[in-house]
Amino acid sequence: MSEELKRKAAEAAMGEISSGMRIGLGTGSTARHFVDLLGAEVARGFQCLCVPTSEATAAQARGLAIPLTTLEEIDRLDVTIDGTDEIDGAFRLIKGGGAALLREKIVAAASERMVVIADDSKLVETLGRFPLPIEVNPFGLAATARAIGEAMARFGAEGGHALRRKPDGTALLTDGGHHIIDASFGRISDAEALSGALLEIPGVVQHGLFIGLCSEAYLASVSGTIRLSG
Ligand code: 5RP
Asked: Is 170 contained in some domain?
């Protein structure tokens, strides 16, 4: 997706916020545009209190003097604006391409609304083309990976799974000190059941299926930006 389309989706979502709001800040290259735009508004006097979903977003926000807080300090957020790897017609998402899915899900769940910003290539008929990121505890990694493989087979996965690695070959560590296993399903026919099955695996901390959290999206394409709401 071009940076221009990401920017356009982020610009459209600026209409969702107003001064005084408590805002969850997503992670990824599209969310980054939103944080930039918000920073420019803050410099002009816009009031907000924000919870970032990753150390990367926190660093960006701090650099722009966006006031930050935590979910220890406040209970609820008015809205979270975040990117996605996939979104289907029922506003179910696959997230975690940027390895921030755990904090993203915690922040989205603490928000009155989650608004997704993306280009329209992220809109899919059936989730699963994008490998599902699964955040796992490093302890007992092999056992957890085996159990994930078994669950994948039960759900008719078309591909395998792989531990996400950094360019130097070492296992990627999330902000929470966990690893990510990317599970290639091809298509996920029953996202709700899969979600439950994955969460039953003891070593699984969380997975990137976001169900019932998002109800609005701005999807940018070369012909314009559309707002979807459910
Ligand atoms: C990070 C995420 C991102 O929101 C998702 O990967 C989309 O990123 P981008 O806007 O760079 O395409 O879930 O964990």
From this structure: yes
CA-closest candidate to residue 180, choices 116, 132, 135, 211: 135
Distance 149 CA to ligand 1 centre (A): 24
Residue 228 belongs to a domain: no
pLDDT of residue 123: 97
The Cα–Cα gap between 132 and 135 comes to 10
Same domain, 28 and 116: yes
User: What is the distance, to the nearest Å, from the Cα of residue 31 to the centroid of all Cα atoms in its chain?
Assistant: 9
Q: Which atom of ligand 1 approaches the CA of 97 most closely?
A: 6
Q: Are 102 and 160 part of one and the same domain?
A: no
The number of residues making up the chain comes to 230
Is 26 part of any known ligand binding site?
no
pTM above 0.90, yes or no: yes
Residue 149 lies in a domain: yes
Residue 183: give the domain boundaries: 132-206
CATH at 151: 3.30.70.260
How many domains does one find in the chain? 2
Segments of the chain with pLDDT less than 50: none
Residues with CB under 6 A from ligand 1: 26-31, 82-85, 95-101, 104
Which residues are the active-site residues?
104
Same structural domain for residues 9 and 112?
Answer: yes
The answer to whether 83 is annotated as binding is yes
**For the segment 108-158, what is each residue's pLDDT rounded down to a tens digit?**
999 999 999 999 999 999 999 999 999 999 999 999 999 999 999 999 999
What ipTM was predicted for this assembly? 0.99
The set of residues, in sequence order, having a beta carbon less than 8 Å from that of 63 and lying 6+ positions away, is: 39
Q: Mean pLDDT across the chain, nearest whole number? A: 97
Q: Is 105 annotated as a binding residue?
A: no
